[in-house]
Structures are given as structure tokens and as C-alpha cells.
Amino acid sequence: MTLAALSERYGRWQARWRDPMLTALLVLLGLEVFFGLPLLHTSFLDARVFAGAWLVMIISAVLVAARHWIAIVAMMVSSMAALVANVLRMDSPTTTLICVASGSILVFMMTLAGIVWSAVFGPGQVTHHRIRGAVVLYLSIALSFAAVYEMLLALLPGAISGAVVHGKYLVLSQSMVYYSFTTLTSTGYGDLVPIHPLVRSLSNMESVIGQLYPATLLARIVTLELHGRPHP
């Protein structure tokens, strides 16, 4: 079989599974955020299990990525850099390692968001898989901001009251993920408060995005659905 035939077959296979992979990504990312991170600090979850689940999510993201080879390389390199930096960070949580780990996760999440965006809002029929992919985008926004907050907190200790980043975290500080989600959803329990002006500005930005995203998303999906319907 020639290279062109293999590429064509791969393209057909990817076109078939691209939308279902969005649902798989939502399941994996949800498990990581809402179950993996909290359980990582207990005796119920080993760090290797968490790393394995993260690797599965990376593979799923690569499958969604189709032929965006630059994005695939960026995700693979950033994910490996994040895992290595975080493993080293567990023994020696220096500011440099925290910034490298968080910066790598930021690159990974932003690349993933771009890939999922093209899959959700690309040409084709609006399916329930694409709607779930839009939720992946929402989670990616929160995790991206969490990575930024973690870097700022490492560089500017005390920038967020009640939060620390010098724990044994494999991926992201649970407190930063928690703070990011409460900010994005405008929950604001008040237990973590931004002190530094830069963190306050970013928190305001995230709050605005969290309010505008659902309305803008729904309008866009409805528009795509209407365009996709057969005309009478």
C-alpha cells in the first residue's frame, strides 16, 4: 500500500472518530480535574496512575488534532516537559521548576483549546459530541488560567492570599485549579483572594470570559445548526 493510500485511509478514519474523541476528551479531562487532582493528595490514587490517565488524554487530543502536525508536536513536547518538571518538582519545588511545569501545561492547554475549537466550530453538522467539545474548551480556559496563576504565585509569593504552590503537585496546584474555576464561574467563596494588581486584573479578565463564553457559544452553535439544516 502506497503512502498516499495510507494517508487517505488515515484521513477517513480520523474524520470518522474526530467528533467522538471530543466526548472522550471531556470524560478524561473531567476525571482529571474533579477526581484525579483531589484524590492525588490522598492514599487512594498513585501518581503513576494519574500520569497514565494524563497520557491517555494526550493521545486522545492527538487523535482529535487530525493533521495539525505543529499542534501535535507542541502538545507532545509540552506534556512531556510538564511531566518531567513536575516529577522533579515533587522532590525540589523550586520557582524555576514550578514555572517550567506550569508554563508547559499552559502551552498544552492552549494548543488543545485551539484544536478543539477547530473541531467544534469547523464545517459539518452540529452533534452532541461537538457540544461536549465546547465544554472541553470551557475547562481548558480554567486550567490555562490556573497555570498562569501558579506561575505568578511562584514568582510573587502572597499574590493570592491563602494559596501556596510549594506542595507535591504532579500537574497543577489544586488550590489554583479551585481558584480558577470559582473565578471563571463567578462563584467567589472568598477563601482565596487576589492581592497583587496583576492577579486581580487576570481574575477580572477570567470572570468576564466566564460570563460571555456560554452566551457566545450557544449563539454560535445555534447559528451552525441553522446553517447545517437542509433548506426547504
Question: How is this fold's topology laid out?
Answer:
Layout: H1 3-39, H2 47-64, H3 69-91, H4 95-120, H5 128-155, E1 160-161, H6 174-184, E2 193-194, H7 197-228
Antiparallel strand pairs: 1-2
Keywords, please?
75% helix; 2% strand; 232 residues; mainly alpha; single chain; 7 helices; 2 strands
Q: What does this protein structure show overall?
A:
By secondary structure, the protein is mainly α. It has one domain (10-228). Helices cover 75% and strands 2% of the residues. It has seven helices and two strands. It has helices spanning 3-39, 47-64, 69-91, 95-120, 128-155, 174-184, 197-228, and strands spanning 160-161, 193-194. The protein has a two-stranded antiparallel ribbon. It is globular and about 55 Å long. The mean pLDDT is 81.
Poorly predicted parts? none
* Strand runs, count: 2
Number of domains: 1
Structural class, by secondary structure, is mainly alpha
Strand numbers in spatial order across the main sheet: 1-2
Specify Rg, calculated over alpha carbons. 19 Å
Tell me about the biggest sheet? Answer: 2 strands, antiparallel
Topology as H/E string? Answer: HHHHHEHEH
Our estimate of the beta-strand percent is: under 5%
> Helix fraction?
over 70%
Cα end-to-end separation: 44 Å
Q: Which shape, going by the Cα principal axes?
A: globular
Average predicted confidence as pLDDT: 81
